[in-house]
Design a protein that fits this description.
Elements (H helix, E strand, L loop, with lengths): L8 H19 L3 H11 L4 H16 L1 H11 L10 H16 L4 H15 L2 H24 L10
Length: 154
């Protein structure tokens, strides 16, 4: 929150994205269908709404990759056994990690804030462990990727 007690735009967008992603998980509706009724029922600034919708769309677009990462690191848990709210938090955080633009630490901390607010106390450690493992895997993959070399001068 800022000095006036207002949520920061990124926090508001993540929270709105969580509401929409949870609705997608529970209803089976498409992200665009959920965004439509969410827009009609939740007053948000255009920038916050756009950021939230983009994150939910990213999670939908990369669904298979995101679910594979979560499944690989949720040892002993099938994806469908993870509660819908925790699954939604994880999917959005992984989508944000894949998208880049924010530090992994900031993304994980934001996801943990949502877990603290909307999930069970024990789930926070569960979400944290999975996201730390995924962030580590993605960071390792980025380090292992070949670096682009500048073209040789003629």
């Amino acid at each position: 929150m800022n000095a006036r007690g207002e949520r920061r735009p990124a926090s508001a967008a993540r929270e709105a994205a969580l509401q929409m992603q949870y609705a997608v998980e529970m209803s089976g509706q498409s992200p665009s269908e959920v965004e439509g009724w969410h827009a009609a029922s939740q007053p948000l600034t255009p920038a916050v709404r756009a950021a939230a919708a983009a994150l939910v769309a990213e999670a939908a677009t990369q669904r298979e990759r995101i679910e594979a990462l979560i499944s690989r690191h949720a040892v002993g848990w099938r994806l469908e056994r993870i509660t819908a709210i925790d699954r939604s938090i994880l999917k959005l955080a992984v989508a944000e990690l894949l998208r880049g633009g924010s530090s992994a630490a900031a993304v994980v901390e934001a996801a943990l804030g949502l877990a603290r607010k909307y999930s069970q106390p024990d789930a926070v450690r569960f979400v944290h462990a999975i996201l730390d493992a995924i962030a580590g895997e993605l960071a390792g993959a980025a380090e292992a990727a070949p670096r682009a070399r500048p073209p040789a001068s003629a």
